Amino acid sequence: MKVPISNMTFAESQFNGEGGSWKAQTLYDFAKAKEYPIMDMPLWCVDLSTDAFECGSLKDFIFQCKRVNDTSLDYPIILDDKGQIADGYHRLCKAILEGRETIKAIRMLEMPAPDKVDNN
């Protein structure tokens, strides 16, 4: 019997940042509308000390590993207006595990309106 592993769709992906949260689709649509260029970002300059995923249990770790395995490097990662990764940690991990030197990336110069405003 197979062990069930949860899936997560692109539509469920979001970035939580200063002032709110953004759906991954919102970020991609905004970047496309602004015609931000896709560039090759060197992987050696990435801060690997970031807590990118929730991995409090083996189940969480397996879920994140599955997402890395299933992701496609055909899509660029998105960097927010401060240069932090807003979408694409699983693609980043896959690129590093495959021994790549760069990854396609889009750097936002400004952020769109958040999909959800943080009221804290």
Please write out the topology:
Layout: E1 14-17, E2 20-23, H1 24-34, E3 38-42, H2 58-70, E4 77-79, E5 85-87, H3 89-97, E6 102-107, E7 116-117
Parallel strand pairs: 4-6
Antiparallel strand pairs: 1-2, 2-7, 3-6, 4-5
Provide structural commentary.
The protein is of the alpha+beta class and 120 residues long. The chain has a domain of 65 residues. Helices cover 28% and strands 22% of the residues. The protein starts with 13 loop residues before the first strand and ends with a strand. 18% of the residues are buried. The mean pLDDT is 92.
How confident is the prediction overall: mean pLDDT?
92
- Low-pLDDT parts are none
End-to-end C-alpha gap: 45 Å
The topology string of helices and strands comes to EEHEHEEHEE
Could you tell me the radius of gyration in angstroms?
Answer: 15 Å
Side by side, the strands of the main sheet go 3-6-4-5
Number of strands: 7
Number of helices: 3
**Largest sheet: number of strands, sense, barrel closure:** 4 strands, mixed
List keywords for this structure.
22% strand; alpha+beta; ParB/Sulfiredoxin domain-containing protein; 120 residues; four-stranded mixed sheet
Q: What's a concise summary of this model?
A:
This protein has helices at residues 24-34, 58-70, 89-97; strands at 14-17, 20-23, 38-42, 77-79, 85-87, 102-107, 116-117.
